[in-house]
Amino acid sequence: MTMTLPAVTARLPAAPHQRPARLPALDLFRFTAALFVAVFHLVAVAGTGSVRIWGDPPDTVFGWFYPVASYGWVGVPFFFMISGFVICMTAWDRSPGRYLRSRFVRLFPALWVCIAITTVVATAYPKVFSPVPFRALPANLFLLADPLGLPRVDDVYWTLWLELKFYLLFLTVVWIGLTYRRVVAFCLLWSAASIVAAELSRPWLDAIVMRGNSHYFIAGIAFYLLYRHGSQIELWLLVAFGWALSIHYFEGNPWQASHGMSYTPSSVLITLCFVILALLATHRLDWIRWRALAVLGTATYPFYLLHYVAGFAVVHFLRHNTQIGPISLLALILATLLTTSILVHRYAEQPIAHRLTAAFTPTR
């Protein structure tokens, strides 16, 4: 016996035959999320380890800005939601082979370049972070450090392992063939599996369904379906379900709990993330068309990959060897990271990606 979804496709507006052009608003949101995470790490996390890169505790150094920066981790789930939107958008009308090629080329060239930069920085200036053992490097190059239990080159790379698992999970529906009904079914099954995982408390099941984060990807997928097909009650229910779970899981955020931070700001911020993507999905942000945002969008991934280890090392060095004030130094570091990321994308990531794309494209 097979279970079918309600026949909702008959009342859907005609879907476009082509994927939408690059959405500048997504570039803006991606970079904003990365910037929030970078500020969170460089300001709030910077004073919790054995080495205080600012010299004094960051709450003393930054004053009122410290609690503001402490909620920057909201950028991570916002990333996951955007990823759900983008992956569904880019996968539509693509074969499984093209989908896998596009994900590999998008994920790994920048990763390889930034791992090299991070390793050089940690080796040359080990006062903040030490380079990982050589035996761990090959696994890191293919995002296998987490499943193999090896140290990461950079701790922020834990999100990339979740992204990779999401790509592989979504491959199942790409393999079958993307349609509205199948993608909705995929979201429903993934949501149900996440709830079952919470009930059973099985680590292996948690590892597969990513309980605690799956609802962000699912909400992002639902937002893209809203963008593509228009308002449908089942899609808004998926979004509402994701929002409800996000509010639940945010209360248990380890950073928030260990630092006694108020639950209210994170609830407001995550709700704002849902509202922003709802505006995008209902085409209320189509007026955002600034071409310069594409530069920020392409630089976001290298910026994220470099901001932690390399950013900490540069802050520590300059803070202890110059008289630059903390706010000015923070702005300088962020600007330097952005500039470096633009150069990495243009002169390293892009050429490698083009060669890989050519190598992976079948010749007739």
What do you see in this structure?
- The protein contains 17 helices and no strands.
- By secondary structure, it is mostly helical.
- The chain has one domain (20-106, 156-341).
- α4 runs parallel beside α8, α4 (75-91) packs parallel to α14 and α5 (96-124) runs antiparallel to α8.
- The relative contact order is 0.16.
Category from helices, strands and their pairing: mainly alpha
Nearest-integer average pLDDT? 90
Assembly type: single chain
Q: Pick out the low-confidence regions.
A: 1-18
Give the ordered list of helices and strands.
HHHHHHHHHHHHHHHHH
Q: Per the principal axes of the C-alpha atoms, what is the gross shape?
A: globular
Helix content: 55-70%
Number of helical elements: 17
Taking the alpha carbons of the first and last residues, their distance comes to 43 Å
Strand content: under 5%
Please outline the major beta sheet. Answer: none
Indicate how many domains the architecture comprises.
1
**Rg (C-alpha, Å):** 21 Å
Number of strand elements: 0
